[in-house]
């Protein structure tokens, strides 16, 4: 379980949740949900991610069993990335949460304005 | 939108997603999903969180409009925390993802073992 004990925040599920909701993890899952991509295609689709960070993100998701990496020994060689069955499930869930968050931004922004106004009124 | 441009990872939804999926954010939402709690009750229910980190997490979630803070000017004074309507929606979604992750831990662990074994076989 995720709550209930002093070690709750350190449980293995915590690490996996971090991998799939990380800044680049969410975006990689979103791109691969649209189909198989080569490394350079993932990078272009996301934008703003360094080669090193993307390689690290893909490797973490591959090790967790969410991403499948397929190297083609052709000339020039290339590597395809796609979602496993487990990865597709994860991607759909994470992406639904991300889109919900995106839709609620106006409400969140209004709440922040109200909060800041109340705070400066008290100050 | 969350993907598609160079600023994708910097959009406002990113920040909100981080607040609700943060180590303590997830656990706070989970506790408040069970009902209104005082600060000390939230802290006890989570376990392992410092007073400062919990106060910061609650404040961030309050400012985003997910958590309602109600101070009771009685003796001794106490403060109640509960979810707003928006917060309850967020909590249900985040919690469903966290629980899914928790259920899939055996599969993730098996994937990691296979990955590490393949890697050391290549080395």
From TrEMBL, chains A, B:
<protein>
    <submittedName>
        <fullName>Putative transcriptional regulator</fullName>
    </submittedName>
</protein>
<keyword id="KW-0238">DNA-binding</keyword>
<feature type="domain" description="HTH hxlR-type">
    <location>
        <begin position="11"/>
        <end position="109"/>
    </location>
</feature>
<dbReference type="InterPro" id="IPR002577">
    <property type="entry name" value="HTH_HxlR"/>
</dbReference>
<dbReference type="InterPro" id="IPR036388">
    <property type="entry name" value="WH-like_DNA-bd_sf"/>
</dbReference>
<dbReference type="Pfam" id="PF01638">
    <property type="entry name" value="HxlR"/>
</dbReference>
<keyword id="KW-0805">Transcription regulation</keyword>
<dbReference type="GO" id="GO:0003677">
    <property type="term" value="F:DNA binding"/>
</dbReference>
<dbReference type="InterPro" id="IPR036390">
    <property type="entry name" value="WH_DNA-bd_sf"/>
</dbReference>
<keyword id="KW-0804">Transcription</keyword>
């Amino acid at each position: 379980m995720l709550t209930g004990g002093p070690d709750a925040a350190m449980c293995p599920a915590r690490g996996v949740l971090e991998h799939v909701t990380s800044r680049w993890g969410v975006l990689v899952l979103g791109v691969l949900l649209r189909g198989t991509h080569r490394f350079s295609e993932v990078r272009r689709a996301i934008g703003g991610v360094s080669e090193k960070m993307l390689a690290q993100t893909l490797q973490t998701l591959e090790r967790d069993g969410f991403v499948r990496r397929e190297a083609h020994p052709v000339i020039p060689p290339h590597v395809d990335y796609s979602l496993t069955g487990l990865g597709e499930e994860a991607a759909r869930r994470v992406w639904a949460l991300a889109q919900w968050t995106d839709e609620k931004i106006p409400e969140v922004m209004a709440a922040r304005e109200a909060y800041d106004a109340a705070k400066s009124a008290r100050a």
